[in-house]
Design brief:
Two copies of one chain form a homodimer. Chain A is an alpha+beta fold and 214 residues long. Chain A has two domains: 118 residues, Jelly Rolls, CATH 2.60.120.10; 76 residues, Winged helix-like DNA-binding domain superfamily/Winged helix DNA-binding domain (Arc Repressor Mutant, subunit A). Helix content of chain A is 38%, strand content 26%. Chain A has eight helices and nine strands. In chain A, the strands form two sheets. In chain A, strands 1, 2, 3, 4, 5 and 6 form a six-stranded antiparallel beta sheet that branches. In chain A, strand 3 and strand 4 form a beta hairpin. In chain A, helix 5 crosses helix 7, helix 5 packs across helix 8 and helix 6 crosses helix 7. Chain A binds a DNA duplex (30 and 30 nucleotides) through helix 7.
Chain lengths: 214, 214
DNA sequence: CGTGCCGTTGACAGGCGTCAAGTACAGTGG
DNA sequence: CCACTGTACTTGACGCCTGTCAACGGCACG
């Protein structure tokens, strides 16, 4: 199970951010392991911890009352998540594939907050970037931006595997799975990308993909 | 000029956040005044300052190469903005109506960063909230959410004035001005709101508006 | 080989963008 | 005082993009 996920996530372990190692507070904690789809925290639960992805991937999302879901962010190795100001989580975080996560209690060690400012700013920046994508870009443009984002997380590789199913891509980009599929097909037919199986992506024309995101 | 703006923004001066007064660093700075549409900082400029709205309002936006604009956030009295991790601004901030802004240099006083974590978390939270709106809601639902947001900034008043023109609302919600106008008309025809002139909003059925944002 | 999940493709309808015309209003100048 | 002008907003007609519904194909697993 999850063979198609564990291979790329294994490669990603080496990408764990060294600049955050300085925080001995974090390194002293054990890594918790989660299986695919397992909840790391849920909306409504009491907050008070900071989380960092060690390996694998995490989706953070919120669900509207009518069932519509919006994935706010994907997090990969080294990325912090779950940082917020309220007492209770307003979003849910789930593992994508087998995923390792380190937790720090902010109640026991409130001073850790000080070191997390760069991480919060990073999250904030990503959220703003994503606002542009879902606010002002067409379906194909969103897919292009998404593929470039995933490529960047894979070390700007031209060939990589998507960690998540289509429904996650759709809920991240504010689209439906059908539109995601159709947009990928369009990019394929324009010889901008090649598809290798359901999750494999090969970027043939990197520049064309970038031009779509203008 | 701007009479329709200065009245509500004047009321808002009292709403300046007291919990931030502790930072004498901020209070020691003079307030710079900006006229309607004046740039506070621009995309590409060197960053290194934190900004706080004293009175009036501010829009922060980015523009894609093809001219499409996305307003990332509106900021009102007491709100911090311009906080980011890079060396250079990736967005532009402009005054809406006559606006007062206090600046703090983060290069001269880097320790100020520590006190700004709550403000960054607040900005981050707002961005996430907005992701849901523009990612998963219809035009009418976005307008409903927007009106409730503006109402909240006016002390949850049922009657308030919009500070900004339709084009700002549209670029904030990822819509066109025509769709904004039509959606407002729909809400008006359903007797959920009343329109008083171009900018005046009266919420007749608060509950109905909330139900639209589910 | 059947079953179930995931992804793709097609037909169709509806929502929103685009283009265009019309209205309201403030400011200006005669 | 009133016509003129420019800006902001509204309304209408129309077309496209994307959502919806449905059928189909591929692959893993039992």
């Amino acid at each position: 199970m999850h063979t198609s996920m564990s291979a790329p996530s294994g490669a990603r372990i080496n990408a764990i951010p060294l600049q955050l190692r300085e925080q001995g507070e974090v390194e002293s904690r054990p890594t918790s392991s989660f299986v695919d789809g397992q909840s790391i925290y849920s909306s409504g639960e009491r907050a008070g911890q900071a989380y960092r992805v060690e390996f694998g991937a995490v989706r953070v999302y919120r669900v509207l009352a009518n069932g519509r879901r919006q994935i706010l962010a994907f997090h990969f190795g080294g990325s912090w998540f779950g940082l917020q100001n309220g007492d209770h989580h307003r979003s849910t975080a789930e593992a994508i594939g087998v995923t390792g996560v380190k937790c720090v209690s902010l109640r026991e060690s409130p001073h850790v907050w000080n070191g997390l400012l760069p991480a919060v700013l990073e999250n904030f920046s990503s959220a703003q970037e994503h606002q542009l994508v879902i606010g002002r870009q067409s379906a194909v443009e969103r897919i292009a931006a998404f593929l470039l984002e995933m490529s960047a997380h894979a070390g700007h590789s031209r060939r990589f595997e998507l960690f998540m199913p289509r429904v996650d891509v759709a809920d991240y980009l504010g689209l439906t799975i059908e539109t995601v599929s159709r947009s990928l097909t369009k990019l394929k037919n324009k010889d901008i990308i090649k598809l290798h199986g359901a999750r494999g992506i090969e970027i043939v024309d990197y520049r064309a993909l970038q031009n779509l995101c203008l």
